[in-house]
Amino acid sequence: MITTNYSTKLIAVLAFVLFSQSFLAQRNFSLYHLEGSPQRHYINPAFRAGSNVNVSFPVFGMHSIGLSHSGFTINDLFHERAQDDSLEVRPEEAIRKMARLNHINFDVKNELFGFGFRVDDNYFSFSVMNRFQFNFLYPKDLFKFVVEGNGRDLLGERADFDELGLNMNSYIEYAVGYNRKLFDDLMIGARVKLISGIANINTSRSRIGIYTDPETFDLTLDGTMRINTTNVAAFGEDEDLSNEFNPLDYITGFSNFGIGVDAGASYEFEDKLTLSASVTDLGFINWQSNNQNYETNDISYTFRGVEMNGFFDGDDDNDAFDNLLDTLGNVFNQYENTDSYSTSLYTRFFIGGSYKLNEQLRATAMLYNEIVNRRYRAGLNVGVNAKLGEWLSASLQYGYFGRSWSNVGFGLHLRGGPIQYFVAVDNVLIATNPFGQKNAHFSTGISFMIGKPDKEKEAGNLKLDDTEEGL
Amino acid sequence: MIQKNSSFIRTLIFTSILLSITFFSCNKKDLSKIASGTWNPNFAIPLAYGEFGVYDILAVTDSLDELAIDSESGLISLFYTGELYDLLPNNFISLDPVSESFNFSLLDFGETPSPSFNQTANASFNETIEFELEGQELHEILFHSGTLSINVTSDFQHDIIINLTFPEMTQNGVVVSETSTLTYSGGTTTENITIDLQNTLSDFNATGTPNLLPIDISVTLEGTGNPIVGTETINLDFQFTNLDYEHFRGLINPETINFTDSIAIRLFTNITDGTFSFTNPRITFDITNSFGIPIQLDFNELKTINESSGQEYPLAGFNDQLTIPLPTTMGQEASKTFELNKDNTTNMDQIVSSTPNYFFYDLDLNVNPSGAMAPLHFITRNSSLKLNAEVELPLEGFAYGFEFRDTLDFEVGEDFEDAEAINFVMLRLIIENGFPVDIDAQINFMDEHHNIVFSAFTDIEDIVQSGAINEQGRVINATRKISDITLEKDDIELLSHVKYFEIHALGQTKDGPSETTVRIHDDYTIKTQLSMQIEASQSL
Question: Fewer CB within 10 A of the terminal residue: chain B, N end or C end?
Fold first, then answer.
């Protein structure tokens, strides 16, 4: 029997807190299967902490940061030359790796405060979370147009810049959660969130294209765009707006009010197989303070060059170009308004399963789905999860996400006495081969867990505690 | 149990070591070693476009005011007009000042010297004043303006009463007459009489001899008791000045007035060679005459001139005399139009085939050629003889072999140094031609000595293809032609030496060498578009 005293566990927890700072992480794939971590409740409300009470305090709570780029990697852009070890820039190679539409996503989640407690078969939770999400969509043809020009592959084709857009969400969510064990095998849960929006950029309509006629080289521009913003003008040059804006006013002000719902379930088949599913951030925010919305008319304009007739009528160069500018001014019209608008939250779906290999090990699998700005993306991973008594569990994942198969995740949960620490890294390869990766996600946090685990399990026993984890 | 725990811990430790090794042996590119890279874009852009009709094309050659359109058919004709001659009244008659003097002595009164004369003596005289008009025969004048000054001087020591009557001069129907009294007050007595001749009608042929104006002079000598010596005289001095006529009647002597000039034909500006044939060219003479004088127009020579080659083509086989129409009533105009065409000449269609720059004319106006004495000629102050000519070229016919050459300055811009990054430039000229004209062209880029550095095309290229025509020679469908001018890297590098570019074009109408007739209508257009494709290679 291995015995680990209280001090050792605490030291181990602190050591990993320091060590894990060099990791970057992902979309909580590793966290989903990281047993024992109360933060899993945020991914699937049917999950609950392995204690009677858990508390997360400001600064020490969960912090999650993720960055992904579905387009190209640094290695796709820079290549070593054969004659020496210098690097050569090959933008065309990067373009070749792009999809029609590519994403740059950045999201941050900070648990400002949270707690949960159990009463019989019921589990109640409350949390305050800061959320920041950034999303930039760019079409492949945009790079192609700039790098290769419109005289090769794009000649006779429409350069498709549709859905080019920038989106940003910043808000505070106040969530109340509940889950309950129904029967012996089924756990269900839900969280209701009240949301106070801070700032937003939403590209609600983006359709832009340039067609190059293969014979005449006429350029036909078509499209329309609409961008809604809230509290973004404050970061512009208007000093009055800048001075007026105070993010703290929006933390509890609810002037940009939103509602969100998380829901989840977990079902265990004959003590071996567990299936779980959840949906998070199903909801919307209504933005109505300091709005500044920009919209263009439907554009369809063909540029055929400068009209020569004017020169023969005695016009000089300036007249011809002035006429062209006047025409462009009439074609491109921008409208502004301050109307309110609504945006959907970035909804995510998790479908997971785990199979008990032995008392310590479980095989896991998960299908991840997200809907961001009406765009659907999915990820898939498989892995193993190991648990050593109450104080340690680890998970190792491998999967596909963001047009990349090189996603190796690692998660670790340590519990020493009342202190619980976790770290989840969805792509450890970012540390070894950062220029070859497209995804990086990192979550970590400390919470305080009070209350003994199920007394049926002996100390240091590696037997999994099914009833606590709700798996 | 212990074995299982140990196995798990070993697995966990091994995994941690493996992760640590891979972490510290990372494969990272050193971005500070970026050495090279190229940006190799290829851009295709439109540069300019235009749609030109007949009006736009002719405006370039400043020929817009020479264009006319048949309202029914839309067929275009070019007109080149010139005012050949404008005959004015001063060409025939100008009234110079006229002066005449008459002297009367004691004998004219029938009296003898007397130491004291207290009676009254009368004398009457009928005189005439002659108006010399350079041999022209003057019968009647209505003066528009003029002044008759009569200066009377007397050295009789007695009062003189002078009565002047011009029986053939009337103003508003009233005979012109003036009476003046010279009162003796010692020494010579002088009196000045002024008569305004405006609106005065004068008959200069009342005596039966033209150019003579009769005057009746009556002089009365009223004695003052002073002596009459016998040598005294009375002098009348007549001055006609500032004379201008409202109308003239008389006879103009025969004379010949010659004039020569030319009319510019701008259609063939910059066209150095070629064969043109117009189906129905015309030269129209338009005459308007308000002189009541018989005049005959003699065509000494009509010809076209090609300034470049010096070739001249005289018009032949036409009636070279034309009688100018004559008004019957003073103040009226008589007009006549006379046309020379292919039917009344032998070579009208040929004289414009040489791409002439000018139509030259040498004409004589023969005034009163027969010397007839009747009816009397008349001239008013507003009389004129206007002779205009119009060369009309209906744009119907055929042409071939016409060449156009022009050399323009060329200078590359200040940013030409960046041209090293350019791999090639392709200029695309798209012409959708609705005219029945084919044009082949070559563009030569030349250095400062006009040596050809390189050319746009391998050989002269057909860049404009004629539209399809029907049996009447009218275009029914436009034809589209795409011509590409490609400048490779070598050519671009040579541009710094280029100072001029020459455009050399050869043109013909549709099937011109076969003498197929085509027609130019006002609804024809030619659409042009110029685009560019450029590929560059820029180091990063």
Answer: C
